[in-house]
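Repro case for the chain-ordering regression, as requested:
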Amino acid sequence: MKREIIFKILRYNPDNNKKPFYQEYKVEIREGMTVLDALHKIRETDDPTISMRFSCRMGVCGSCAMLINGKPQLACSTQVLEVSKKMIILAPLPNYDIIKDLIPDLSVLFEKHLSMKPYIKRDDIKDKEDPKEEFYQSPEDLVKYLQFAYCIKCGICLAACPTVATDRDYPGPMPLTQAYRYCVDTRDNGYKDRKDVLGDSHGVFRCHYAGECSNACPKGVDPAKAIQFMKRMLVFDYLKLLKTKKTAQCLGKPKDAKRMEGIPAPPEFTIK
Amino acid sequence: MRETKYWFWHIVCGFVMLFLLGLHMIIMHLDEILGVFKFAGERVLAFENVASRSKMIGFACIYVLLVGAALYHGLYGLRSMLLELSMIKPLHRLINIGFWILGVILFIVGAAGSIIFIIRFG
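-- result from build under test --
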């Protein structure tokens, strides 16, 4: 079944336009078409000048995040007919500057992300820089941060956050979630380097727990939960109740392990 | 770490207020029915009753604690709102100092009555 839907797209070119404005396009939509498909169709048939970001087309890269009928979503994983059967209004993500048309300037997001030191920090530099073996991490340790590691850095959570809308110095859900993700990672002991930024007057405690970040997240990361956990960690630290986690150590192959019966040996290396 | 301290006490004050404000509401509005806190006369809000309660060190402590908790909780909330207005950094320091001074002054004003009463008549 085909249906004609009006797409109202926010256009803005800082070189030519003083203000952003909306432009309308009529698009014939088939069932199952995503907003990204519709945008491609508009570019192919009506207006090739529309600028937008996209890459994987399957909700993995996070490039095509935009405001679809007032809700920040990924254009590639949002079906047109599920949003509206009459009109779709598209705009770039709010809480960011606009580079052009549907492209938000995400540099602020990445600067804030970087300020959280989102990487494994260890005291023993030698183990980190030149690891001879793998760091041991149990499945239970992995589960502590796994959900938060699914983040694709699309920036939707910052667009949905009411605190980011008013407080430009607030890092926002994604950077704070990533800070927590590394703080609970047993391979990391960089909490002491992150806690000053996290416990700053514009840090985690500015979160009002509106929960919009978790509602909007296309990967089910639940940043609001991570922020509450981060608050708890900081408070426990203030009360001197924070249990110091044991940093994961390098673990070699077991020396006296025997192969179980019925399990075949791996093939020989082809390159010696 | 300073913000952690401020926020932690903000939450503690919230819980303290929950209990003390509940007690305050019971004394002021429910005691006509309960009749537990009428130490002098029938009307719970009559001066004699208020005065008799104020002479007791327990009630004085409750009211001083309630003033402190309510002020801290309220002023912290107000400060949070101001900090979210994306102001320039030097203003943050000014806000912090200003709110501490305001809080201390209001606490002295609020607690003075109870403290003076207990010193003179308690």
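Ordering looks correct now. Helices of chain B lie at 2-34, 47-54, 57-83, 89-121.
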